[in-house]
Amino acid sequence: QDMTEKELLKMELDQLKKEVKNERQMISKTGKELKDYIESMAGEDPLLKGVPEDKNPFKEKGGCTIS
Amino acid sequence: MCDQTFLAIVFGPCDKCFKEKPLRPVYIKSEQLSYCSLCVEMMATEGLHENETLASLKNEAESLKGKLEEERAKLHDVELHQVAERVEALGQFVMKTRRTLKGHGNKVLCMDWCKDKRRIVSSSQDGKVIVWDSFTTNKEHAVTMPCTWVMACAYAPSGCAIACGGLDNKCSVYPLTFDKNENMAAKKKSVAMHTNYLSACSFTNSDMQILTASGDGTCALWDVESGQLLQSFHGHGADVLCLDLAPSETGNTFVSGGCDKKAMVWDMRSGQCIQSFETHDSDINSVRYYPSGDAFASGSDDATCRLYDLRADREVAIYSKESIIFGASSVDFSLSGRLLFAGYNDYTINVWDVLKGSRVSILFGHENRVSTLRVSPDGTAFCSGSWDHTLRV
């Protein structure tokens, strides 16, 4: 990039000033929300609970299938 | 007797103030100019002033960073795994490779799933981009790019086109056609132009816009039809290696990670960086949003993966083990977000329990680095691509 060091620093400074003002929440709250989300979706997660062989589209095929 | 050389005094217009005065030669950035003595004085003090402001700016930046850390630390009242203490631990996992997609002539660099949950597009160092049907392992389309190291590829939401790019510094969109007589390369559309290699690309919610990340340190949003640049995102201090779009419900943001060890979250409409996180010790190779959109994970050359909570504005978990010393090249979440799959340069894939921070499983099988990894849209499987020229589902 062809900006002077001063200009780059100014940009960084402006960005930092903005970030300091961001709204934040406590981890106890947001962490809980993450956990709740997972628990609500876990029932639907095929990689988590496994897929019955007959429903698994990636199951190795046995005999020939003619489509 | 010493020789005395006299300075020849040149009289003329000063290069700075243009007044007619006696001039002195002055060197600025290896160019020789002639300034009058007044301007020389001014320039000398300006130089000093310049240094002062530079130093004071640096100090201000440092103190702001400190303040930011302080603010973030205030919210660090618990660890994620403490919140998750009462969650059931996960049992043993058995995950097998169900399909091996062979056909690339060289390292597989990138892949993406189609929304139909079965097609996959992958790109390789040999310049080939292939569309596979993962159920049958058939190759449905193949295109040879004019460049090698196609580092990025993406499937359009409609399933009717793919985008790819790499060392050609461009992102090109190829509509997928089932007409055997049509040459795919003929319909190619160059959409994005960067000044360095393309490292990542992704369609937004529609086929009409593409987001790109490049070695030139910027990300950009393009209109596919016109090839016009809609928005550019400046802020990374080095190559941007990866990006991921927020899941549609949570709005118009995306996260990018780069060689400057920073992960930055951007507002797509304004081009502004909303938040940035700099806790990794090395290049961030991959970023992926958590399914709910409130967090994202990153994988880095420092051999760790980390989870950042966007609302708490900080890193909330680190997934690492002393025994893992190779960089993580690619990360993705399972459907619920409970599992984090990460592909590493030591040829393995580690599966982490997102909440507890522990490793659930290691998957072996690739014979070279795992370079890319994506969970299918419905979560029934995940595909990994490797430098061993194959993809595994």
From TrEMBL, chain A:
Entry keyword set: Cell membrane, Coiled coil, Lipoprotein, Membrane, Methylation, Prenylation, Transducer
Chain positions covered by the region annotation Disordered: 45-67
Single annotated GO MF: G-protein beta-subunit binding
The G protein gamma domain, residue ranges: 1-67
Biased composition (Basic and acidic residues): 51-67
Pfam short name (any one): G-gamma
Subcellular location: Cell membrane
GO cellular component, one term: heterotrimeric G-protein complex
Coiled-coil stretches: 3-33
GO BP term, pick one: G protein-coupled receptor signaling pathway
Membrane topology: Lipid-anchor
Superkingdom assignment: Eukaryota
Function as written in the Swiss-Prot or TrEMBL entry: Guanine nucleotide-binding proteins (G proteins) are involved as a modulator or transducer in various transmembrane signaling systems. The beta and gamma chains are required for the GTPase activity, for replacement of GDP by GTP, and for G protein-effector interaction.
Family: Belongs to the G protein gamma family.
Subunit structure: G proteins are composed of 3 units; alpha, beta and gamma.
Protein name, as recorded: Guanine nucleotide-binding protein subunit gamma
Native organism taxonomy: Eukaryota, Metazoa, Chordata, Craniata, Vertebrata
UniProtKB/TrEMBL annotation, chain B:
CDD domains linked: WD40
Signal sequence extent: none
InterPro entries on file: G-protein_beta_1-5 (IPR016346), WD40/YVTN_repeat-like_dom_sf (IPR015943), WD40_G-protein_beta-like (IPR001632), WD40_PAC1 (IPR020472), WD40_repeat_CS (IPR019775), WD40_repeat_dom_sf (IPR036322), WD40_rpt (IPR001680)
Keywords, in A-Z order: Coiled coil, Repeat, Transducer, WD repeat
Matching Pfam families: WD40_Gbeta
Keyword Flavoprotein: no
Coiled coil: 51-81
UniProt keyword Manganese present: no
Placement of WD repeats on the sequence: 101-133, 191-232, 233-276, 277-318, 330-362, 363-393
Family label: Belongs to the WD repeat G protein beta family.
Name under which the protein is recorded: Guanine nucleotide-binding protein subunit beta-5
Annotated organism of origin: Dryobates pubescens (Downy woodpecker)
